[in-house]
Structure formats: C-alpha cells, structure tokens
Amino acid sequence: MTVPKEMPEKWARAGAPHSWSRKKPSWGTEEERRARANDREYNEKFQYASNCIKTSKYNILTFLPVNLFEQFQEVANTYFLFLLILQLIPQISSLSWFTTIVPLVLVLTITAVKDATDDYFRHKSDNQVNNRQSQVLINGVLQQEQWMNVCVGDIIKLENNQFVAADLLLLSSSEPHGLCYIETAELDGETNMKVRQAIPVTSELGDISKLAKFDGEVICEPPNNKLDKFSGTLYWKENKFPLSNQNMLLRGCVLRNTEWCFGLVIFAGPDTKLMQNSGRTKFKRTSIDRLMNTLVLWIFGFLVCMGVILAIGNAIWEHEVGTRFQVYLPWDEAVDSAFFSGFLSFWSYIIILNTVVPISLYVSVEVIRLGHSYFINWDKKMFCMKKRTPAEARTTTLNEELGQVEYIFSDKTGTLTQNIMVFNKCSIHGRSYGDVFDVLGHKAELGERPEPVDFSFNPLADKKFLFWDPSLLEAVKMGDHHTHEFFRLLSLCHTVMSEEKNEGELYYKAQSPDEGALVTAARNFGFVFRSRTPKTITVHELGTAITYQLLAILDFNNIRKRMSVIVRNPEGKIRLYCKGADTILLERLHHSTQELLNTTTDHLNEYAGEGLRTLVLAYKDLDEEYYEEWAERRLQASLAQDSREDRLASVYEEVESDMMLLGATAIEDKLQQGVPETIALLTLANIKIWVLTGDKQETAVNIGYSCKMLTDDMTEVFIVTGHTVLEVREELRKAREKMMDSSRTVGNGFTYQEKLSSKLASVLDAVAGEYALVINGHSLAHALEADMELEFLETACACKAVICCRVTPLQKAQVVELVKKYKKAVTLAIGDGANDVSMIKTAHIGVGISGQEGIQAVLASDYSFSQFKFLQRLLLVHGRWSYLRMCKFLCYFFYKNFAFTMVHFWFGFFCGFSAQTVYDQYFITLYNIVYTSLPVLAMGVFDQDVPEQRSMEYPKLYEPGQLNLLFNKREFFICIAQGIYTSVLMFFIPYGVFAEATRDDGTQLADYQSFAVTVATSLVIVVSVQIGLDTGYWTAINHFFIWGSLAVYFAILFAMHSNGLFDMFPNQFRFVGNAQNTLAQPTVWLTIVLTTVVCIMPVVAFRFLRLHLKPDLSDTVRYTQLVRKKQKAQHRCMRRVGRTGSRRSGYAFSHQEGFGELIMSGKNMRVSSLALSSFTTRSSSSWIESLRRKKSDSASSPSGGADKPLKG
C-alpha cells in the first residue's frame, strides 16, 4: 500500500483495510473513503460529491428535448410519429397531417405538463433542502452555511430538533459520555428514539478551540445503501480507533433530547445512505398490459396485411383499368408503373387504417387507472379512525390486477396480529406462572378470573400493566433467588431508553414491542430500569437503587437471534445475561441444566400452543481474568478491517456458551379485528393464503387456528420439519401420497411416481378433502433447492393453507418468486415490517400495513392501509371493479375503432383502391378524442355489475378475474369480429340504399359528401347505443357524456358545413350546407335507423339468450336483487290494504295469499354465497370450474395426460 506523506508511519504500519485502495480509481468507482477534519484542501483532492442534492430531472433548457426523448421511448408514440412523417409525404398522404398531429400533440402535451408539474415540485423540494442553514466550523469559527455548501471533512454543529445535514461521525455532544438521541423516521419509519455515542477519545471535544485543532482522519467503506452497517477507523494522535454504526448520525435523522452535538462529515449529498436508498423500485406491469402489448403487435400485423391486400388491389386495378383512363386520371409524376402505384398505395392505407390502434387508447387507460386509485384513496370504509390513516394507492398501474389475485403471502406479526405485546406467562426455574386456577384446580377462563395482581406496593409500576397470577408477585416478595435473577435479567438485558418527564413517571422507548413488554413486566414486579449511561445501568430493585457497570452489549441480529449484556454488580462480580430464541439458546446451555431444560421445554411448547411468542433466558458467571482476556480479543476483532462482523460473531459465540438456564417468557400478540372473517371471505373467493413468519411453529399454527386458516374439519395438517434434504423430500412425498390416496377421483392404478413423471405434475384437481401444510425454515431451505422446488410447490398448492415458520426475509421472497415462476397466477404480498420489504417488492402486488414496526413496508409497497381486514374490500370491491371496468373499456374500445376503421377497407374496393377516405378528415381527427372518448371513460371509471355489498356477500364473483375471463385473446377476437361485422353493415347498407335513392325533388341522392355524412352519423349513433348496452351502472355522468357526445357531434357537423366557417376558411370548409341537406332527407334517417337496428339487434338477441340459457354469477345476483325489490314493493302494497269489520284475527291479517308458494319456491330466501354458487351450478360454476381445471393443467402440466383424474 502506498503511504501518503501526510500519514504518520505508525498509522501505515497499523494498516488500512486490505479490500480498500488508496483513492478513487480513474473509472470513477470509489473503493474507500478518506476524510480529514478541518482540511478542505486535502479532501478536495478526492473530488467527493458536494452536499447539494438533485432529485429533479430537467431544467428550463433541457426539459423539452429530454422529455420528448423520454416520451418517444414509448413504442406507441414512436409509431404515431412515424405515421405523421408519412403524412407529410405528398405522394402517399391521403389525410391531412393534422389528423395525426392533433391527437399526438395532445397526448405529448398532457404527459409533458404532468412531468413538468412533478419536476417543479422536485425542484421546490430540492431548493428547500439545499438552502437549509447549518453551523459549520471554518477557520476556528462557527459560520452559517447552506446545506449545499457543506463539504466532506467539515465539522458541523447540530442543535436539538434539527435535521442531520449529511452522514456524520459523532464527535461530541452536550450529554455525558458523548451520547445523543436521534429519531430515524425518515430513514426507516421507526418513531422510537435511538441512541448514538461518540468514541471516548473525541467525546471530550466539546470546546470550539479543541475542535478547531482536531485533525483526525477517517478511513472507511465507500458510499453504500446499508442503513444498519458502517465500518471504518479513525486515525488520530498516532492511534487508531474502530468506528461502527453506533458512532454515526445519518442524513435524514433528527436530533432529539440533546442540546447540541458536533459531527464530522463523512458522506455528503448523493453519497449519503439516505440518497443511496432512494433508487427506483422495479416497475411492475399488469397481465392486461402485457396482453395489450401482444394484441397491439397483432393489430399492427393485421394492419400491414390489409395494406398489402389493398396495395395489391391498387396495382392490379391500375394495370387493368387505370391505364385506360390516363387522360382523365393521370398518374403522379413520380409514379411510372402500376407496381410503384401499389407501393405508394400501401403506405397511404397504413396512414388511413392506423386508427385501429388510436393513441387515445393509452391516455384513456391511464386516466381510468388514476380514477380507480382515487376511489381507493377516498374510500371511507378503508379509513382507520384510531390511527387517522386512509388507504393509499401508491401506484396507478396495478389496479385491475387487484381483481385477479390467486395467492396472498402474509406476514403474521403486525399483519394478522396487532404487534402490541403483553407479558402473559413465564417459566422460572421449572415453575410456570400466569395461569389462574379455581378451587377445583381447573384453569380459570378470562371472564372467570378474579381481580388482576395489585402492584400498588410499587410507586413506579405501570398502571396499564395487567397480570393475573398473584403467585409470581408472592415469589418476588418472598425473596426467591431465581425469580429475582429472572427479573434482574429482564431489567438489564435490553437496549430500551428511559425518559422521566416528571418524578416517578417513566416512559420507555423500545426498538421493538417485545422488548418494551419485558422491561415493563420487570418494572411492575419491582425491578425498575431507571436510567442508563454508556457505561452503567441503574435499576431500582424492590426500592433500592443499584448501579451496574455495563461492560459490553452483544447486540441482537437476525443471524444470532439473541442478545447479551455483560455487567459488573456493586460487589464486583461479572455476569453475562442472555435472552434469545429457544432454537438458538437451548443449544448453548450447560449440560448440568438438562432436567430443568426438559421442564422448561414443556412449558415453551405449552405457551407456543396457545399462540404466545417465547424467549429463553440464561446467564453465565465470568471470572475477572477470563473477561479481561475475552475483552481484549473483542477489541482486536472490532478493530479488524477485514470481516469485522464475522470475527465479532465468533468472539460472541465463544462467551455465549455453557450458560445456566433461568427460564422463559411468553408474550401475547393478539389478532387484529376482522382477520378470521377476512380470511374466510378470501378463501371463499378461491384465494389461497400463505403465512410466512419468523415465529416458531407452535405459535404460528395456533394463530392459524385462531384466524380460521386451519380448522378442525381439515382432513390433515402436514408438518414438515426435516433437517436434511432426504428427510424433507420424504415428508413431502408422504404428504403427496396421502392426498392422492384419499382422492376418490384417482384409481388404484395411479401411482405417485406416475403423477410425478411430468415436469410439473398438478394434483390440484385430483385431491379430495382439505389439507394444510406447515413447514419450518430449515426444512424450507432444502425445499427451495432447484431439484426439490417443484415438488414442494405442487404439494403446497394442493393444500388449502400453507404456513412457513422460522423463515428469513430472503426465504419469504424466494417463496413468492417460486409461485410467480411456475404458476400463471397473480401474487400479493402483505406485511408491516422491514423484514417484509423483499417479499413485498417480489410479488406482483405489494401491500404495506402502517403498523407498529415503522413504515418501511409502506414505503416499498404499491398499496397501503392500517388493518388487514381492509384487504377484503381492496380485492373484492375495488380490485374486482377495476378489472371489470378495464376489461369492458378495452373490449368496447377495440370494437368501436375496428367498426370505424374497417369501413375504409371496404370502400377501397369501390374507389379503385385509391386510398380515398370515407369520412371527412375532421371527423377522423375528432372521432376518438371528442365524439367517443368521454362515454367510454365514464364506463371505465364508474361502471359496476353489482353493488359493493353484493361483491362482499358473494365472493365467488371474484373468480372470473382469476381465470381472466373478461378480457383475453378470445374476447378480443369476439370484439374485433363484432367491429368488422358492424363496419360491413355500416358501409354496405348506406351504399346499397344510395345506389337507387333519390331526394325529395327527384334528384339523385348519391354523392360522396352525403354518403360520408350518413355513414359517420350511423357510426356515432351505433357506438353510442352499444355503450349504452354495455353500461351496467348508470350515473348522471354517463347520461351526460353519452347523449352529450351525440349532441356535440351534430353541433360540430352542422358548424363545419355552415356559411360562417366557409366565409372564414373557404379552402378548408367547401361543402356548405351539405349536412343540413343530407339529414333533411327521410331516406337518410331511415338508412341510419336501419343500420343501427341491424347492427345492434344481434347483440341484444345474443345477450338475451345468454342471460336466460347460460347466466353467469353476476347475472344471477342481479336477478335475486330484482326479485327482492319486487317483494319489498309487494309488502308495502299489502301493508296499505285496509281492514274492515270489528273482529281482529291474528292469523288472517298477518298473512297474505301466495307466501306459501313463495317460500316453497325459495325465491324469498336470502341466497348465500355457497347456495348461490350451487344454484348456478348448471350454467355458471360448472364452466368456471372447467376453465379453472384447464388453466391448472396448462399452467402446471405440460404433458398433462397422466394427470387427469379418472372417473371411477
């Protein structure tokens, strides 16, 4: 390593990290960060980023070119630009250029305005942040500087409640021992205060003069996005000092409860961890988006085919017929042959027929999605009054996919449960506390319990804390050694911060609800954690204040799954206290505790069976000599620049062994309100719910029963706990065999091996009965291996419920990815914590719950709300409606544009393939952006087939979305066929009529302009009537847009043929009075009516027959609603019938004739979701189920034949 001249030789010998180089390489990748305090000249050599941030994309000069460049990255925009260029070529242009440029400019302008508005707010936010003031130490004097002028190596002063300007190394603070308190809500969503501490050597630099002389140099890791890790070394006064995340203040944090502090800038601006984490999330696209892209390519191919056909027709016509009329119809100068004429005609028809894919389609889709997003945001029934939190659609691109979800992957803690922890039970030295027994020795239920334990003896007790077993308090008061040691551990082994606003009023700030519950329990039982410093912890033990010297904290992480503290008591005795997960801690106990271990394990299993969260507590006495030796090794490991964390973990592992068992705690985390009902409803909608949790198996299974995922009626619950690949494979094989053996549809000849002979054998349709699968994390690790993942997937998918326990955040994401990879199904992941972020980002749809664990999950999600129960409304109401509306919108949109465009194709055969248009060019321009845009938008935004109550009442209505029935390739071709059929009638009926028709005065009716007006008017009326038929839910807006669009059409039509416009633009509007004269002819109106009737009647007849012969579930629901309304009306009429006579018969006047027949018919019975599905079995459910089977076969069994169930 090259040693800089400024670095003392002793530092060089001490060594810098081997994986870091001296400086930033020439290609710009920084491999280490060096920052010297109070030396801007030295730091400028490295050309580090300034503290100015820029989240905006444009400025005044670059906006137009950059934005246009970005917009033309879209294939559709490039396609229409290409058409515009074609229209500017006179030889092939059959339409004026404005027919394309008007809609294109409109779309580009709307998008540009939206982008400019977004960027304006980014500029505003950037300026606000960059111009914040900060106190910077320059030349020994504190000066006010804007944040953007702060540089790496500067020392800045922060005051209470100020935001941290850059990533700082904490040097000193107003608090003892260099402590300071920060809030990290902007970084990770945690509102609890966290403590940071300066290293001892700099904690005394509180004076400006001392800080001005500070010239230490920090060598550390390069900029990265790891919020919880930092590794570096401070070189000062010929010594080196290890630096960790506990010494850092990150940009975005807020200083709290600390008068002031000083920090050295390490990372600035875009290099800070906050900005490093602000990268773009992967863009998610819906299945409808992907299908639309495919269909647009097909349509373009169809367009080319039509162009080729008409071009060939033109070449033949010009060769056979056109050459005879050269005197009257000469070729253009550039045209020298019939073949070249056909070539030019091809491009002319590409221009004319391009409206099969109008640019307004993409704009309309985005407008509809935006409207759906606002409906979610405005839904008062998804607003949590307690937290004042509304539902939020954080994306506008996935709404319709909410109506197609088949798999939900849910976290447990904080998602299904409240994540509000209550100390419920404990086991101390083999005795269990927490249950209350009656005089007969039976456990008392909650309602039968006596008064809770009285903690009035303790003035510092938390009055909200409740405990029911008085024997535990008696053990404390009796001086039981093990009980005292148990609560002493809870009061010492934690990272809770204590705040005492008034005398005796303690407020605990815990980083997790579990930890807060345990410290509060110790507090109420007389072991009150009172205060802490970096080196001491003060606890009031039964009224006596005792200060322990804090020697070390062996912190918790997801790998260790435990935390320990090493303390020295006032007598000088050193002891390690440890608490952690049972799977980890029980392996590290001394062999002499085996008998106690067996008893405690029984208690742990009992607690987990009740759905409680468990921790094991242990301790170990250390002698002075051993501790000194271990502390030295720990120091060396903490100073290591290579693999520092691994070395520390190894040192920690050594001391956390041969511990003595104290007992265990059990904390209750209650279910959220409405969780069982929500899961039951979603299950009826054929949505499979998988729970992925870090809790132990027994706890997760109990919660599964509580929330009705698991039921006693299930055929079997398979539990996979194998520790090796072979064990897991065998357990999965047995589960498959049991499911197959119990299936009535599979004959004796079907063996398991035959079922697995295909690459992905599906047993979903072959399984009879309901099963559940529970798998542990260590087993899941094997099950997710490449050679076993398919077997695991099919076993899990054949089960009604799946629970994965003890899983890591990575495993959660892997499970979601596995289902996405092999199943043609939409997945949704829902969670509330940072450990759910990877799962949320992996799924098609991510939902974040704004709960107790901060807002990291919310920030990574596509949708967010505060309670799990709102998921049923998000999917069954908003999701189903969004899917329904988008499908109806697309079907109608393609229909109306094919009906509009194909008329040109038929006309080509009657105009010598000359690329003459049927319609007026202004009509072509306005058709999609004025005449037909608003009605279809209204349908796409407001339509609904059944009211929201019925959507929740009949969850089977959700299934068409899962099967993608409402818009697929088949539905697309049906819409295209209907559009082509309409275009044929639209052209040939007026053509046939006009061939022989005359005006009122006997003159020939047929002329080009009259024909164009007649066809255009017929088209607008037909598509308006069609959308009226398609609209299932009429609002005032629908009426206004549909009939208003018709009125606007006639107004513009008459205006364009008026004298006024002719006088102003005589070259553009030549046909004065044509519309008035044409539409004054009764023959024309009869033609329009005939065309409309012939186009619409087949649609009406088809829908009438389908409604009566093969109704779908929504038709049945609407019918039952209609019957109920009629019955209510009959009831009201019957109640108004007056009575005559004096006798009052209780029977005669309380009954009405006909109700016996009505009851026998069942028409007055409320149809449940299950009864309703069976009611429509013949016509609805049967075909849905058959489609589902076909989909399962195609998705899961490419070879399929061996997997079909046999009919026995």
UniProtKB/TrEMBL annotation:
Q: What residues form the catalytic site here?
A: D411
Give any Gene Ontology cellular component.
trans-Golgi network
> What is the main EC category here?
translocase
Which InterPro entries does the UniProt entry name for this protein?
ATPase_P-typ_cyto_dom_N, ATPase_P-typ_P_site, ATPase_P-typ_TM_dom_sf, ATPase_P-typ_transduc_dom_A_sf, HAD-like_sf, HAD_sf, P-type_ATPase_IV, P-type_ATPase_N
List the biased-composition ranges (Basic and acidic residues): 1-12
Instruction: Give the EC number(s) listed in the UniProt record.
Output: 7.6.2.1
Q: Where is the composition biased (Low complexity)?
A: 1194-1208
Q: Name one GO molecular function term.
A: ATP binding
Keyword Lipoprotein belongs to the record: no
How this chain sits in the membrane, per its record, is: Multi-pass membrane protein
Domain annotation P-type ATPase N-terminal: ranges: 36-101
Q: Which domain of life is it from?
A: Eukaryota
Q: Does the keyword Metal-binding apply?
A: yes
Q: Which reaction does it catalyse?
A: ATP + H2O + phospholipidSide 1 = ADP + phosphate + phospholipidSide 2
Q: Please give the residue ranges the record annotates as the region Disordered.
A: 1-34, 1180-1208
One GO BP annotation here? Answer: Golgi organization
Question: Which cofactor does this sequence's record say it needs?
Answer: Mg(2+)
Where the record annotates domain P-type ATPase C-terminal, the positions are: 858-1111
Record-listed Mg(2+) binding positions: D411, T413, D832, D836
What compartments host this protein? Answer: Endomembrane system; Membrane
Which segments cross the bilayer? 95-113, 295-317, 337-363, 889-910, 922-942, 972-991, 1011-1029, 1041-1062, 1082-1105
List ligand-binding residues for ATP: D411, K412, T413, E515, F556, K579, R613, T693, G694, D695, R806, K812, N835, D836
The record's listing under PANTHER family reads: PHOSPHOLIPID-TRANSPORTING ATPASE ID, PROBABLE PHOSPHOLIPID-TRANSPORTING ATPASE
What does the similarity note say? Belongs to the cation transport ATPase (P-type) (TC 3.A.3) family. Type IV subfamily.
- Put simply, this protein is called Phospholipid-transporting ATPase
Q: What is the native source organism of this protein? A: Vicugna pacos (Alpaca)
